[in-house]
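Pipeline run #58 for the internal structure catalog. This entry was flagged by the ingest filter as a single-chain record with no existing model, so it goes straight to prediction. Upstream metadata was stripped on purpose; only the residue string is passed forward. Reviewer on rotation: M.T. Logging verbosity set to normal.
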Amino acid sequence: MTELVHTFRPNVFSSERSFRLGPDSLIWKDAQREDRLDYGEIATLNIASMTPPFGKPQSRCVLHPHSGGKIVLQSTSYKRPGIVEDCSASYVPMVRELMQRIMVANPQATFMAGQPWAMWCFWLIILIANALILLLALILALTGEFPLPAAAALMIVVAGVPLSWRVVRHGRPHPFDPRTLKEGELPG
């Protein structure tokens, strides 16, 4: 089997990070350091996907070690402002194999799909606020008291509804069993 390596740049302000699967641990390095995490030390693996309004779908795999903190792998790489590259070709096989190695090293590990609860609740609040604003705008429009200068701000609210609905509808955190995934698929 060839060595699985996944390289990405998390944002435009950071250096490139490279992850590879070692025999007993996940190994990563960037411009400042190299580190590793034993597969048996990973308590939780969370995969969440999101499609921005004007972009490609993005997936993040967040590892939570028993010792605390988190390690993040993502399916996109920021090349420069406005340019995001899809790295799913290396991300998906890396995460799938990583899940298998975690299951072997730590059978008690938890596998979660969807946004973390705090993020999901944030998007739920945004959706509810958007719905209330739209309802208020409708009431004001029907009574003839809708201020025309507020129309531009209302368009922003309208644009946010599909994104927040998508996250709330599909992004609720839930456990999954990596053994039940179809070939080449990830949850989230």
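catalog note: The helical segments are 88-105, 117-143, 151-170.
catalog note: The two ends are 27 Å apart (CA to CA).
status: ready for reviewer M.T.
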